[in-house]
Every structure is written in C-alpha cells, then in structure tokens.
Specification:
heterodimer, A: 118 residues, mainly beta, seven-stranded mixed sheet, four-stranded antiparallel sheet, 11 strands, globular, B: 105 residues, six-stranded mixed sheet, five-stranded antiparallel sheet
Chain lengths: 118, 105
C-alpha cells in the first residue's frame, strides 16, 4: 500500500490567518482526497484533488475557504483560509490504491494534521 | 446521499471478551472499508470488504451486500484494541459515526 506523509503534523494558528497542509505519497496515485474530522466527530469528505484541474468539492465546502492544489500524481496541498476556531479539526489526506480484488480500490489515510485555531 | 449507521456507539469490554460491531448502509455499495482510529488519531485499515467474509488474526468481517450490512468481529479483545472503529462506504468515502471501544485490563 502507498505510504502517505503530511506536514505539519500539528499547528496552533491565530484566527484570520491561513495554513497550508501538504500531503506527499511515495508512489503515483490517481485519486487523492481531503477529509476533515472535527473534535469528537466522524470524518467528512472536503474534496477530491484532481491532477491538472480544479478540485471537486462536496456540499458545504467551497474553494475560497479550502483551496486545493494537485500539481502531480504524488503531491497535494490543502489550505484552510481565514481561519476561525470552528476550523479546529484534524485534516487528513487519503489516496486510492489497488484493492485486494480486481473490482475495487482501497483508500489509505495519512497521519493527519491536528489544527487548533485560537 | 447514502446513510451509514453504526452500532453500538459505545462498547466497554473486559480483556479477553468477544464483540460484534455492526454497520448498516442505506443503498447498494461497491466499496466498504473498516478502520480503527487509534488514540493518536491514525486511521488503520482493517478490511476492504464490499462483500463476503475475511479474517485477519483475531479480527474478522462479513458484509452481506444484498441486505446492506457489515459486521466486524473482535475476538479475545486486548487493551490495544481500544479506539474508534469506523465503517465507510463508496468511492468518496461516507463514514459512519463510529463505535468507541474501550477494553479494560
């Protein structure tokens, strides 16, 4: 399975500022995703990071707030813009990798970025 | 969109006990995964199981796609099994709310 790293692992930021999170994969992958996990909650998909085109955002998430880049098949960034305390969450990237059968693909997650906004 | 419900929401066990976690989903799926989120927040892949039965050590899982549910079995639980167990479905993963498992020594 793909090995995924994220930077930074954690950060404490002031409200109104922006933070860019990096996701690096050790092999080329077609599909990369960004998720958010608010405190005590489950994971919610923010967007699909598309290589060479704009990201595809889920309902409730917009590009101005969460701009995403995907310059190649091994790297993506997520920016959390104009942060407020409500943005305090764990942000995780994931990739789709070949599954254990020929009919589907398994997703693997990076270690996450724990963001606290004060 | 598809709904994913997990039960029970919380489970407390004594070390050595067995448990069954359930995941119901509202529509047919071609992808279902079980994850364990450890106390440090890392999501660990347990099973990719859109249908059928798989086993890995003390853990096993069964998905009955026609009846839209999946079960995760944990046998002879250990304290290191503690954490949150998530079921997630579809390509753009929709997660259930998870089961918080606590295993006491």
């Amino acid at each position: 399975s793909a090995v995924i790293s994220q930077k930074p692992s954690r950060d404490i930021c002031q409200r109104g500022t922006s933070l860019t999170i990096q996701c690096q994969v050790d092999s080329q992958v077609t599909m990369m995703f960004w998720y958010r996990q608010q405190p005590g909650q489950s994971l919610t998909l923010i967007a699909t990071a598309n290589q060479g085109s704009e990201a595809t955002y889920e309902s409730g998430f917009v590009i101005d707030k969460f701009p995403i880049s995907r310059p190649n098949l091994t790297f993506s960034t997520l920016t959390v813009s104009n942060m407020s305390p409500e943005d305090s969450s764990i942000y995780l990237c994931s990739v789709e990798d070949g599954g254990s059968d020929s009919f589907g693909y398994e997703q693997y997650f990076g270690p996450g970025t724990r963001l606290t906004v004060t | 969109g598809i709904q994913v419900e997990q039960s029970p929401p919380d489970l407390i066990l004594q070390e050595g006990a067995n448990s069954t976690l359930r995941c119901n989903f509202s529509d047919s799926v071609n992808n279902l995964q079980w994850f364990h989120q450890n106390p440090w927040g890392q999501l660990i892949n347990l099973f990719y199981i859109p249908s059928g039965t798989k086993q890995n050590g003390r853990l096993s899982a069964t998905t009955v796609a026609t009846e839209r549910y999946s079960l995760l079995y944990i046998s002879s639980s250990q304290t290191t099994d503690s954490g949150v167990y998530f079921c997630a479905v579809t390509l753009r993963l929709t997660f259930g709310e998870g089961t918080q498992l606590t295993v006491n020594p």
